[in-house]
Write a structure and sequence with these properties.
Belongs to the PrpD family. The chain is about 45% helix and about 5% strand. It is mainly alpha-helical. The termini are far apart.
């Protein structure tokens, strides 16, 4: 070895060891559980040459391999905290369970509505046409009965397709009810299998309340990770958090140990993460609508591999050079605002009034008020010269597309100018307004008006957006007419589905659920499901398979 190479290797060794020590020392206080997560120590006895239980692709070259460190490897504290929360934290918040019930109903309704769109329906069903899995996951609203991995994709894709389910806004954005794709698929499969004589998860028969508890914990994991950590700023899509949260709760549902849950969580972190490019111009496309379904199926698949004995990756986050922090997070560690509890479910946002990306909800509500005001004045959107939208930074970064072309559904439902223009012109905003060839998508007035809507950041709105006591999503619209008249600014700070307006929203959430049921079921079935949804005691005591059977159809006109 040359002197130069020896010098480089020695310098690398000197730099690397203190860095590894400082990362471990800094993160250790986050977790109280250590010893049970330690990876097995390497054997130093002569029996270490017996490779019966040692994986190696180079057995013949074993003597030339670098020695394995004798010290046990601790799991990253962030991973241990998640595993400990899932296994040891009781959920005793009735507010969280009540909110979870509303989220559950709303999410099922959103999935049923998604089925009505052929671009969604074409992706659903078994991989091999005609396949039915005995005791498998039933996909509600369809005749499909699938393996739990594909079942998680189907349910997750339906739920997310229209961007109409719940929402969480912080440093990272996302939709925690996306996790229901994995949770419901596994709960249904396990229950049907055990009822048929199987013994998954110790013979567990899941109830709807079990599903609600799993939802609360998945919401909490995804939401707390999102509070202070921006994945979008490094180009990653928020569905990485769906994969991590689903892997954590599903592993517990399948009867895995706390250490195996940690293993599953590390597998989710090491798994290739989706890029956000499919959500932004010039690449906006339909993958954004099935990305959550993909995250759900990956989570279930990874947990099943751990269930079969696959180990974890203990320092998947903190490993120098090759860990998540160094490779994908610019060397930064995750920050945490609060311990895991039930905060996220208690404060989650519902999309009640409009199928619109959440940062635009208050702007669309303001547009509806302006539409009515113009109508009262004997004027219309054709009389508008320009609109200024005072908004928050996240809105500008995600959906401010004033002059970008609207090439498809995905472009339109993530453009604040388009959504406001449709409301200003027609006094409505429905999922059908995003489709190619629709009245709104082909309207010259909508197209010209959206290019007259300018977004400007209000720093106070951005501050309020991140304030844990507020978490408002404020937008304010000022309209100037062609005759020079300037209408009073219309400000909406909290959308109807916000915690501050929750009671006001509940009748609308129920009406939305009923509206989404009606195209699929008879009037009697719709009435029964709505009434059951409003009877928490009966609903929560039902077994998951019996409840899902209420939503299954032998023949669907949509798939």
């Amino acid at each position: 070895m040359s002197a130069v190479n020896r010098g480089l290797r020695q310098a690398s060794r000197t730099l690397r060891l203190p860095q590894r020590f400082s990362q471990t020392a800094a993160l250790r206080p986050l977790s109280s559980r250590c010893s049970q997560f330690a990876a097995p120590r390497a054997s130093t006895s002569s029996s270490s040459h017996n490779h019966k239980n040692t994986f190696s692709t180079m057995a013949a070259l074993q003597s030339g391999a670098a020695p394995v460190p004798a010290e046990a490897r601790e799991y990253d504290p962030e991973v241990k905290d998640i595993a400990s929360y899932v296994h040891n934290k009781p959920i005793d918040s009735e507010l969280a369970f009540d909110t979870a019930r509303w989220v559950f109903l709303d999410t099922l309704g959103c999935g049923l509505e998604g089925l009505r769109f052929k671009e969604c329906a074409k992706l659903l069903g078994p991989i091999v046409e005609g396949t039915t899995v005995p005791n498998g996951t039933k996909v509600f609203g369809t005749p499909f009965q699938l393996d739990p991995v594909n079942g998680a994709f189907n349910i997750g894709t339906m739920i997310r397709w229209l961007d109409y389910n719940d929402c969480w806004l912080a440093a990272e954005w996302g939709h925690p009810s996306d996790n229901l794709g994995a949770i419901l698929a596994v709960a249904d499969w396990v229950t049907r299998t055990n009822r048929a004589g199987g013994n998954l998860a110790g013979g567990k028969l899941f109830t709807v309340r079990d599903v609600l508890e799993a939802m609360i914990k998945a919401h909490e994991i995804q939401g707390c990770l999102a509070l202070l950590n921006s994945f979008n700023k490094v180009g990653l899509d928020h569905v990485v958090l769906v994969k991590v949260a689903s892997a954590a709760v599903v592993s517990k549902m399948l009867g895995l140990s706390e250490k195996q849950t940690a293993d599953a969580v590390t597998q989710a972190w090491v798994d290739g993460q989706s890029l956000r490019t499919y959500r932004h111009s010039p690449n906006t496309m339909s993958r954004k609508s099935w990305a959550a379904g993909d995250a759900c199926q990956r989570a279930v698949n990874l947990v099943l591999k751990v269930m079969k004995g696959e180990p974890g990756v203990p320092t998947v986050l903190s490993a120098p050079v090759w860990g998540f922090y160094d490779v994908l997070f610019k060397g930064n560690k995750f920050e945490f605002q609060r311990p895991y509890g039930s905060y996220v479910m208690e404060n989650v946002l519902f999309k009640v009034s409009y199928p619109a990306e959440f940062h635009s909800q208050t702007a669309v509500e303001a547009s509806q008020k302006i539409h009515n005001q113009l109508k009262a004045l004997g004027k219309s959107a054709a009389d508008i010269k320009g609109v200024t939208c005072r908004t928050h930074e996240a809105c500008i970064r995600i959906i401010d597309k004033q002059f970008k072309p609207m090439d498809n559904f995905a472009d339109r439902d993530h453009c604040i100018q388009y959504m406001c223009s449709v409301m200003l012109v027609f006094g409505r905003l429905t999922a059908g307004d995003y489709t190619d060839g629709s009245e709104a998508a082909t309207s010259p007035l909508v197209e010209s008006l959206r290019q007259k809507i300018k977004c400007v950041e209000d720093p106070q709105f951005t501050t309020d957006y991140h304030d844990p006591s507020l978490r408002t999503i404020s937008n304010a619209l000022t309209v100037e007419l062609n005759d020079g008249t300037v209408l009073d600014e219309v400000v909406v700070e909290a959308p109807l589905g916000h915690r501050l307006r929750r009671e006001e929203a509940k009748p609308e959430i129920l009406a939305k659920y009923k509206r989404h049921l009606e195209p699929h079921f008879s009037a009697d079935k719709v009435k029964h499901l709505v009434e059951l949804g409003q009877d928490p005691k009966t609903l929560e005591a039902m077994s998951v398979d019996e409840y899902v059977d209420l939503y299954t159809v032998k023949d669907s006109k949509f798939v």
